[in-house]
Amino acid sequence: MGRFVTIKDIAKKLNISVSTVSRALRDTYDVNQETREKVLAMASELNYRPNFNATGLVNRSSHNLAVILPFVTNYYFSTVITGIQEVAYEQDYNIILHITNDDPERELSIVKNLAVSNLDGLLIAVSSDSDAYSHFQQVIDTGVPIVFFDRVPDAIHTSKVMQDDYNGAFEAVEHLIAKGYRKIAHIAGPEGLGFTQKRKKGYLDALQKHGLPVKEQWIIHSGFSQENGQSDAAKLFSLKQRPDAIFAANDRKAIGAMIALKEQGIQIGKQVGIIGFTNDPAATIVSPTLSTIAEPAFEIGKKSCELLLKHIGKRNFIPEEVTLPGTLIERESTRR
Predict the structure, then answer these.
(1) Of 60, 75, 109, which closes a domain?
(2) CATH number at residue 198
(3) Which of 134, 149, 279, 318 has a 20 to 30 Å separation from 176 between CA atoms?
């Protein structure tokens, strides 16, 4: 499949501005009839596929929303979907779910093969290692709105809904410090993700505030799985200088770290504190129970869908960036 035809292509062919093409396609009052007809004719010639037909019926709706996300078995994302569904179904919208398995090539394939003419909008959490987002911009340029949630690309100007990664991380590390831990490591997510960087910065700033050492060997980037956390912790505790606490990018990594420490006979809490980020149900099942920063996953899903419906209902709706706070939950893994 070739690249999407965008309003920029129409503008270039007609030697007029992109904003004029956009207004003509939306049938606004400030575009004269001759220009509108030229734009519609060129759109038809180029097989431009906006989310409404070329006669300017802006209010036409398929009532289909696509959701693209890395995982469906992950507790966090399944909870986000529940929030999305609550809003979508109340407004009589259908959800079409696409799973990337955190693979940027699969993500690209999904987006390139979307039947965008049969979608009113998209909700997307990007893949971990994705560093190219032009395919999302091409969809937006066809007239189909996108709202990003959780994992968001900074370069694209559209609405985004995130948890407060920086302050959540800062609070997690300050909690460890308050409990008496002083040599704190961070097992982080993939380095290219925006929220990975925000959580890392929160970790570093908390250490700096309290005058504690920052050691590069105590910061390990990898994936989000339990196996990643287990491997990361094993690396940390193979070092000559070992940490006495771990802040993990998510609960699955934290639980993996707990397994690795147990295998070495290290007492969690008493000898090494561990705190995660998510509030996965598994955090209350493991022994010792896991301290964490609870993410507002359900609220993120609801707010994302609400913003998308605003974009659909009003094409010139100004994009919003919404950041929702997390909540510190203390359990046994940080009690000495």
Answers:
(1) 60
(2) 3.40.50.2300
(3) 149
Nearest 5°: CA angle at 132, between 1 and 76? Answer: 100
Exposure string over 160-190, b if 16+ CB within 10 A, otherwise e = bbbbbbbbbbbbbbbbbbebebeebbbbbbb
Structure tokens at 60: 């036409």
Tell me if the pTM is above 0.90. no
Q: What are phi and psi of 291, to 5 degrees?
A: -70, 150
- Cβ–Cβ < 8 Å for 284, 65: no
Digitized pLDDT (tens) for each residue of the chain, 336 residues in all: 345 678 888 989 999 988 888 878 777 667 888 888 898 898 888 887 654 433 334 445 788 999 999 988 888 999 999 999 999 999 999 999 999 998 989 999 999 888 887 899 999 999 876 566 888 988 888 889 999 999 898 889 999 999 999 999 999 999 999 999 999 999 999 987 888 999 999 999 999 999 998 999 999 999 999 999 999 999 999 999 999 999 999 999 999 999 999 999 999 999 999 999 999 999 999 999 999 999 999 999 999 999 999 999 887 789 999 999 999 999 999 999
Domain that holds residue 29: 1-60
Q: Decide which of 10, 28, 60 is a domain's last residue.
A: 60
Domain total in the chain: 3
- Please indicate, yes or no, whether residues 80 and 15 belong to a single structural domain of this protein: no
Distance CA 161, CA 152 (A): 8
